[in-house]
Amino acid sequence: MSFMPSFLISLAAVAVLFGIGYGGAAAGAGAVIGIYVPYAALLVFLGGLVWKVADWANSPVPFRIPTTSGQQKSLDWIRRDPIDSPFTKGEVVLRMALEVLFFRSLLKNTKTQLHHGKPAYATDLWLWLAAIIFHYSMLVVLLRHLRLFLAETPFFVTAIERADGFMQVGVPVFYATSIGILLGLLWLLSRRILNPLVRYISLPNDYFPLLLLLGIAGSGFCLRYIDKTDIVAVKELTVGLASFSPAADAIANINPLFFGHLFLVAILFAYFPFSKLMHLAGVFLSPTRNLANNSRAERHINPWNPKVKMHTYDEYEDDFRDLMKEVGLPVEKE
Amino acid sequence: MAKFDEMAFYDHKEMTNISYAPPATPWMDTPVQFRPGSYIYPGKARHLEYLGLPNAREWEVTENDWKLQDNWKQIILEGMADRLQRFRSFKLFMDICVRCGACADKCHFFIGGGDPKNMPVLRAELLRSIYRKNFTAMGKVMGKIAGGRPLTIDVIKEWFYYFFQCTECRRCSVFCPYGIDTAEITIMGRELLGLLGIYVNWIIEPAANCFRTGNHLGIQPHTMKDIFDDFATDIEDITGISLDIPFNKKGAEVLFVTPSGDIFAEPGIYTAMGYCLFFNEIGLDYTWSTYASEGGNFGLFTSNEVMKRLNSKIYAEAQRLGVKYIIGGECGHMWRVLHQYMDTMNGPADFLETPKNPITGTVFEHAKSTKMIHIMEFMADLIKNGKMPPVDKSRNDDCVVTFHDSCNPARGMGIFEEPRYVLRHVCNNFVEMPENTIREQTFCCGGGAGLGTDENMEMRLRGGLPRGAAVKHVQDEHGVNRLSCMCAIDRATLHTVCEYWAHGVEVCGITELVANAMICKGEKKREINMRFQPLPGAEQE
Amino acid sequence: MQTRRLAYQAHWLSIMLSRTLQLKREAIAQRWLYSVYDSYAPETAKFLKKKKDPFDNPVGARMVASTAGICEQICADELDAEAVCGHLIEIIKVRAVQDMSPSKAMSFVFSLKDAARQELGQEADAALLTEIDRRVDQIALFAFDIYVKCREQMYQLRVNEVKRKVKTIINKFNKENCGVDPEDEPGEDAPLTSTQRGVEL
Question: Is the CB of residue B447 less than 8 Å away from at least one CB of chain C?
């Protein structure tokens, strides 16, 4: 599918979904969208996540196939690379941690070589940077939302908020991640659209989650800074959701925009396990990254190691015995 | 398809329209065109029959009808379902790609050729689109919108074209944030094609040969003995040392296995002769085998089952001969198989002992399970312990050497320092190529994974361009005239790549340089090197 | 009188060329380079333009240097055949092994005409354009020779490879049956492999 239809379908889907949330609440179905849909989405999310991870885990890893990007462990005096060619479990954990926390492989993409005295374009660093900004902003935003689900705000949430609001501007205080998440997403989206290379490989499955997240982040931004809602009522609703005693009477006091936001979040949760967003869980299972490069020291077991027809030495000697004897090669049977 | 002397062969639109941009059709709607020079001839029926593989028949790539089984769709889909259950890598890599494009410009075929479907992500999407359509809920319901597409004969042809235009070099997987390895995808794609009897002859003939005679080239035992007798004669001519090359010797301490390509073709034979001279000089009690006369494994490019069948001979022969452990020669994909697959497939090798260098006493603990070590590990250990025979580096002074990290030992094993250590020990002039073209970022020769034949020369030359450009650079900058490598396929294919892209650079194995430099006990005054060329300085005298 | 006028014209032309063209040289080269890129798929073109590292993008690096070099020649007083061929080889070697028909592989030469016309625009003088066309046609002929040499070399490489594969047998056979020392035989790459050969037109 070419770019335009892919993009438009995704955009329309997000717009329609937002409309359902917003319009539904405005038309008085706030209880459905504010209570039933989130519960259902959470169920689908958890169920889907468990099912998908179990499904992956059910397929065995028949061979030990780490991608080695550094010196193996061989002779003691040769300096080896414990991160890119891990030999022990601890080293694998280190490699994975760097991969998951810092997107280390993407970082390898950068080139800072000089060409005719000028530095080469380091465009790929931007992909890493945008990914880092988006993912960490997302994480912080998620953690900040904990305040809405717990009656007592935990200390780390307060700490995060203080750090995030370091700019000390605006009422309510302006968070750096509010803009970080939007910029990160916009950068990733524009890269997908403007770079012909990436546009060529992009599918609706790529535009949809980006637009969905943009919809969520955008509506959230509005709710906090522009078209503010009754935050006390929202907290009443969300704390109720979290404690499984939903407060339906709070709904009437909430801005319908909130329900647009909430509905998109619910869709994201429900969509998550069935989409590429599962890279979140998948990265931990990737056999080229999470295995130690020690296959010659410790035998890796393939649970379905097949029985196959071999060509035995005896059969071989039967084929060539006379020829072998002729040139004086030793044989088993004369 | 029209012949070149028919007008229909030429695309008139293309000929009359000089300045044009290519049609901007989405990739799913752009079927593959087979041009001579860009595909490999199909596998011959008799080789498939010999290995007991399905749908053995004679067919042509450019014909419309590929003579597939009637239920070929079912076979492919069942084959996919089966492999999804058996390989976590396959299932995971089908699901988690986010199409970030980090891999897109990392493939040597894309860099050199510019065909967008050679971007690793798209190579995988060729399979992924079928996976989505048939194995995911979203794909089943939403089809194209969810990135799925129906399985048609054009898809099969496209798979054939692009999965045999991937050298399984793993360069892309270094840069992927999720470690998605296109080599795994290609391996699966080729296994699936194999279910329909779609193989290329350059892979399946060596595989069948290897099954029968023990090596890819189909060298029978008596011929092999003959070849080595000739090696012995040549070595005597060069060094004055007459040596005995042990074959199928029971009770030897070490079994030596190396790819058969090196005992037959130039310039690999000089490396093979180097092995004989080296082992003789250090007095190692070793043996070659005619039964396990192949270290390489074209099964890796066929299916994991065929790989296991071919590989089984190494342990079987080690057990029959009663050796203590195995040393492997300089080879690329051979070491991927030995390092990452052999023990799992055909182990445990509990009849062998943990490799121990009898000369230095070093125990190779890192190979304590597989019981097989690389000759470079062995040599590096000798040098470090001062037990290497004395060398005269100046004998390699006619060479300015650079080193090509072969894909598999680099990204499927991690052997980077040992060969460099040995090289620096035996030659004075050693230069590295640019950093982003060596070690884990090394560029493929363009002929690995069973693509190293001659009918696809055009494809290979464009795939070899990135490597060739790096060689050309050090040739121009530092006068490099020798490209050393530890891979038999490289020795065959890089020779050609260099002839085209960096004319004047010759290719050699490391052991060849070792054999040149090594001062053997009782040798005559050396005047020629392993290639029968005068040693530097010898001409003036 | 006639010869004098011709000589004057030639003189005038070369001055025109060097004045007008020198000013526009880089712009023409740039435009031409981009039209060469655009003969690839758009996503490939983007890659060729974007990646500046000569080893990550060897094709792009070659094209940048060679198109600039050829444009220099187009704008010089005289076309230096050797220099032009040296640059042409760099581009054609690549295009000769890429998946494209001969006509497509060669089309890039002619797009230089368009590039020059677009850059010179209104200032263009008919005589100047004719001279440019003449030079481009000359370059096209060189290019044709080089393309064929590259393809011939490719087939020669196939042959060489097969020969190397059977080297052992041939040597053995020769030694045993004919008493010929293989080293006395002519080198396998004696005919046409030199990259320089394209220049020796």
Answer: no
**Contact in structure between C151 and C106 (CB atoms under 8 Å):** no
Instruction: Give CA separation, B217 vs A75, B50, B230, B266, B293, in Å.
Output: 34, 15, 18, 14, 10
pLDDT tens, position by position, B198-219:
999 999 999 999 998 888 888 8
Give the tokens for residue C79: 């076309």
User: Touching check for B265 and chain C: CB below 8 Å?
Assistant: yes
Integer angstrom CA distances of residue C48 from A117, B115, B433, B448, C37:
19, 12, 22, 25, 7
Mutation pick from B90, B162, B222, B308 vs chain A, by most beta carbons of A within 10 Å, is B222
The ipTM value here is: 0.90
Tell me: do B171 and B273 sit in the same domain.
no
Q: Which two tokens stand for residue A187?
A: 């950068």
Give the list of residues 6+ apart from residue A212 with CB closer than 8 angstroms, or none.
A14, A17, A264, A267, A268, A271
pLDDT band at B145 (very low <50, low <70, confident <90, very high): confident
Q: Which of B374, B134, B113, B124 is nearest to C41 (CA)?
A: B113
Q: Indicate left, alpha or beta for B101 from its phi (over 0: left) and psi (-120 to 50: alpha).
A: left
Nearest CA in chain A to B416: A71
| Cβ partners under 8 Å of residue B10, min gap 6 | C101, C103
Using DSSP, state whether A240 is helix, strand or coil. helix
Tell me the CA end-to-end span of chain B in Å, nearest whole number.
62
What's the domain range around A119? 3-307
Contact B80, B159 (CB under 8 A): no
Mark yes or no for CB contact B222/A274 under 8 Å: no
Mind listing the pLDDT tens digit for each residue in B340-354? 999 999 989 999 999
* Positive or negative torsion for Cα A225, A231, A237, A243: positive
Whole-angstrom distance, CA of residue B538 vs CA of residue B412: 41
* Domain hosting residue B67, numbered range: 27-199
* Contacts of residue B13, Cβ cutoff 8 Å, sequence gap at least 6: none
pLDDT at B68 over 80: yes
What does R_g of chain B's alpha carbons equal in angstroms? 24
What three-state secondary structure class fits C67?
helix
Of the candidates A113, A199, A200, which has its C-beta nearest C53's C-beta?
A113
Q: How many whole angstroms from its chain centre is CA C183? A: 36
In total, how many domains does chain A have?
1
Q: What is the DSSP letter of B539?
A: T
What number of CA atoms fall less than 13 Å from residue A84's CA on the CB side?
23
If asked whether residues B412 and B363 sit together in one domain, one would say yes
Encoding tokens for residue B348? 């445990």
Domain contains B7 = no
Distances (CA, A) of C10 to B467, C77, C79, C130, C133: 46, 10, 14, 12, 15
pLDDT tens readout for residues A208-260 = 999 999 999 999 998 888 888 888 888 888 888 888 888 777 788 888 899 99
Token match 């991870």: residue?
A53
Q: Which amino acid is at A76?
A: D
Would an 8 Å CB–CB cutoff place A123 in contact with chain B? Answer: no
State whether residue B401 is helix, strand or coil. strand
pTM score, whole prediction: 0.87
Q: What is the largest CA-CA distance in chain B?
A: 82
Instruction: Tell me the per-residue pLDDT of A270-318, one tens digit each, with 9 for 90 and over.
Output: 999 999 999 999 999 999 999 999 999 999 999 999 999 999 999 999 9
Peptide bond into B348 cis (omega under 30): yes
Q: Do A120 and C53 touch (CB under 8 A)?
A: yes
- Considering the domain boundaries, does residue C37 fall inside one? yes
Residue A119 pairs in a beta bridge with A114
Task: Please indicate, yes or no, if residue A323 is contained in any of the structural domains.
Answer: no
User: DSSP 3-state helix, strand, coil percentages of chain C (rounded to 5)?
Assistant: 80, 0, 20
CA-based radius of gyration for chain A: 28
Domain end position, chosen among B199, B223, B241: B199
Number of domains in chain B: 2
